[in-house]
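pasting for the record
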Amino acid sequence: MMYTQIIKAKLDELPEDVEKEILDYIEFLLHKYGKKTEKKRFKFDWEGGLSDLKDEYTSVELQHKAMEWR
């Protein structure tokens, strides 16, 4: 991590009133790149949410209803 030392030295050269801006930018970068290392997985917590309608509609009819509801 040779950049770490360079970054720390450059931070020491900046005026204190810029620290908030630097912190905001670091948080932006963490948000932007930090999440890319995590694998996003699909959640199926909605599964079975319409099971009470299975006797009333077929799956194709539910698809058509969903289009109407949008």
